[in-house]
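User: Predict the structure for this protein chain, please.
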Amino acid sequence: MDKVELEKYYRAYEDMFLTDGWKAFIEDLEVSAKAIDSIEASNNADDLFFRKGQLASIARVLNLPDSIEVAKQQLIEEETEVA
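Assistant: Here is the predicted structure, written as structure tokens:
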């Protein structure tokens, strides 16, 4: 992607993060993560690993705003170094 496309890409994410829908989605994921994050509720090793995968997926989404911000800052730093 070129600079303009990347800026649009990051802006689209930032706009999405400000919506009520995104905020509700994050609240739902946080509740789900608490329900899933229990070793006692695991019936066997397969269930434990399944829960681990669910939590990893939820964590990726919950951390998406921070990941986008880091990527955006890296782009800004790279542009500053080139200029």
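The helical segments are 3-17, 20-36, 45-62, 64-82.
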